[in-house]
Amino acid sequence: MAGFAIRLVGVQHAYGATDDVGEVTALEQIDLSIPSGSFAVLMGPSGSGKSTLLNLIGAVDRPSSGSVFLDDTDIARASERELTLLRRSDIGFVFQFFNLIPTLSVEENIGFPLALAGSSRERITSRTREVLRQIGLEPREKHYPNQLSGGEMQRVAIGRAVVHRPRLILADEPTGNLDSRTGEQILDLLRAVHEAHESTIVMATHSERAASYGDLIIDVIDGTAAPRIAGT
Ligand code: ADP
Ligand code: MG
């Protein structure tokens, strides 16, 4: 199935005040379109609102106001249950610090989203094998996360993010914790899985070099987002 087309209309987001901190406006008035099948990059400095945007697009959080469409569904108006099902079936996340489950082996980490969704043992085994081949980690299938390098951990995290063939892959600073050479290998792998699955990918980064892997760059500055015109 083709990747989601993403459209944000009048999106604002504020984090509520607590006893200790006042309200923070993280995003103001975002209007944005990301076509199905793109490799889009949210580019901006720390604190500009990239993770907030990814969480809204990934149905982790709901905007304070405005609409977030994945194809024709406004996820700002979906129920919690609908959002949970959507995340499980159609979205894969990759994080800066990998977020693998330390007590599960490489193959168990990769198969985890399928197990969570109630897939059959046969499907979990066959998809896990396929993904292990794709990320080049078959020799490490029985290893645990603490027996892997950072680059290998991120490969596993990418495998886990795509094992259920999601229509949308979200990556939040996926190379932020890796040396530049390993980072480039991870970006190559992200591009390869994106092309193999025809999914839409949205990656947040503060690195121009990482951003150059995308085909649509969106500059995120102080809670605003603007697509960059090619060549500027
Ligand atoms: P980035 O990912 O670009 O570094 P974030 O989206 O994480 O930016 O943060 C945007 C702004 O929102 C920042 O000013 C940050 O301090 C604030 N923020 C992020 N998460 C929270 C939260 N849970 N509660 C309050 N403020 C937050
Ligand atoms: Mg962030």
Based on the model shown, name its key terms.
single chain; 232 residues; alpha/beta; six-stranded mixed sheet; four-stranded antiparallel sheet; 7 helices; binds adenosine-5'-diphosphate; binds magnesium ion
Percentage of β-strand residues: 25-35%
Molecules bound to protein: adenosine-5'-diphosphate, magnesium ion
- Strand-and-helix sequence, N→C? EEEHEEHEHHHEHEHEE
- The number of distinct β-strands equals 10
Short characterization:
The protein has 232 residues and is α/β, with parallel strands linked by helices.
Task: Report on the architecture of this protein.
The protein is of the alpha/beta class and 232 residues long. 34% of the residues lie in helices and 25% in strands. It contains seven helices and ten strands. It has a six-stranded mixed β-sheet with strand order 6-7-8-3-9-10. Helix 3 packs parallel to helix 5 (150-162) and helix 5 (150-162) packs parallel to helix 6 (180-197). Bound molecules: adenosine-5'-diphosphate (ADP) and magnesium ion. Magnesium ion binds next to helix 1.
